[in-house]
Amino acid sequence: MNNIICIKWGDKYDDSYVDKLKQQCEEKCSVPFKFWCFTDKPEKDWHIPILPTLDRYYNEERGFFWAYRKCHMFRYGQVLGDNRYFADESKCLFLDLDVIIHQDLKYFFELPNDKPWIVRGWWNDIITVKRNYARYKSTPLNSSVILWEKGQMLPVWEHVKQHAEIIFFTYPSLDNYMAHHWYDPWNEDGGFLQGFPQGDIYSWYKGNVFPDDMELKKVRTDHKICLFNNSTYTEGANDGEIKKLW
Predict the structure, then answer these.
(1) Domain that holds residue 54
(2) What are the backbone dihedrals phi and psi of residue 124, each rounded to the nearest 5 degrees, phi first?
């Protein structure tokens, strides 16, 4: 069974984002799937509650590791034999709420899953990534799209749970944590995570592939997914731009 997962907490995005993502998936996925939303306000049968397991480690004033709630989807229903939500041997495709789907998501479910997949931001200059590695900046990864087989991401959950106090203090973002513990910028094929190939996913605000295809705010329908990741924008500032492309 194929599963498409999103996550919504707080008020950063209203329910229209979840509804539109679900609609996009139904229109742009030609293989059967179940749609799930991890949320702090479960109301529907396809909602999965976010547990408060890690809440006590989060310092809202510092804002480090702010997307930690994503880690719950690596654990909840992921133990083999627990089929309340995800059947054994099923695949899980996570999508952020602020994405535009251009092409059939069937592509992702047909990828080999010897290792989990994550967005490799090809718009990043790998020299800058390596230079800033010790500064916890310029991560090459983006967690807006992640693909794994049930149970594959459990080691990530276990590591976060075991070292939560250190992780929440050290890493500005989940992406940065992933790049330091589960990916190797010096040997990009040798880490626990593998990056989606060039041509799959691009960024509306950051470009596509450095240095040759870096035009911003350009629609690339020959790619599968467009991300609206931009750390310099305040909450809601890019609502108008993404909704024009819905």
Answers:
(1) 2-244
(2) -85, 140
